[in-house]
Amino acid sequence: MSDVQSSIMQRLKGETRDLHSHAETRNLQREIASGSVDRDAFSAYLGQLYHVHRALESALEEHRDAHPAMAVVATSDRMRVPDLDRDLAFHHMDRDEIDAGGAANRFAAQIEETKNSNPVALLGALYVLEGSTNGGRFLARALRQSWDLDGDGLAYFDPYGDEQPQRWAAFKRDMDGSSFTADQEEAIIEMAIATFRAIAEVSDEVSRS
Question: Among the four residues 29, 46, 56, 209, which has the most C-beta atoms within 10 Å?
C-alpha cells in the first residue's frame, strides 16, 4: 500500500467521479451538448445558475478572510455572476425578474448554512462550478454552431477561451498549494458532492418546466 497521501484535488476528482458523470448525463445537458436545446429552456437554466452563483459568490466574498485558501482560490476572475449578467441580457432575460426555483433555493439555503458553520467548505462548490468550464467550452462550441453565434451569449460556459487549460491548471495548483485540516478536507468534499447533486436537480427542474 502506498504511503503517498492524495492531494485535495485528487480526492475531489476521485470521490465525485460518479456524481460528475451523473450531472453530465441529465437530459438538459445532453440537449445543450447536441446543440438541440430549446432557447427558452437554455435561458431558464442560465437564470437558475445565476441564483446559484449569486448565493455562492456572495458567501465567498463575505468570508474571504475565514481561511487563507479563500483569498487565494476564490479570486474575482473565478466569479461567474458578471458572465451570467451578460449572457442573460443577450438572451433578453431580466435577472431581477427571474424567480429561483425549488432546487436553486434549496442549494442557496445550504450555502447559507455552510457559510455560517464552516465557510472553507464552500471551496468544494467552487471546485465543481469552476471545473464545469472544462466541459463548458465544448457545450459553447455546439451552441455557437447550432445557433450561428459569433461568441456573445455564451460567456458563462466559455469564460476563458483558449486559456482554459492554463486556468484550470492554476486552480488546481492553488487548491493543492493550500493547507487544510483533515476535517476541512472532508467538508470541502462533502460540499462538492452536494453541489453536483444540486446542479443535477436544477437541470432536471428546468427540463420539467
Answer: 56
Main-chain phi, psi angles of 101, to 5 degrees: -80, 180
Q: 196 and 22 in contact (C-beta within 8 Å)? A: yes
Given a cut of 80, whether residue 113 has pLDDT beyond it is yes
For residue 4, the model assigns a pLDDT of 57
CB–CB of 199/46 below 8 Å? no
Q: Is 181 left (phi over 0), alpha (psi -120 to 50) or beta?
A: beta
- Please state, in angstroms and as integers, the Cα–Cα distance from residue 76 to each residue in 67, 80, 81, 84, 118, following that order: 16, 9, 10, 14, 21
pTM metric for this prediction: 0.95
Backbone angles phi and psi of 195, in degrees to 5: -70, -45
End-to-end CA distance of the chain: 50
Cell numbers at residue 127, please?
471546485
- Confirm if 134 and 107 have CB atoms less than 8 A apart: no
Q: Is the pLDDT confidence value at 151 over 80? A: no
For the segment 3-37, what is each residue's pLDDT rounded down to a tens digit?
457 899 999 999 999 998 888 889 999 999 999 99
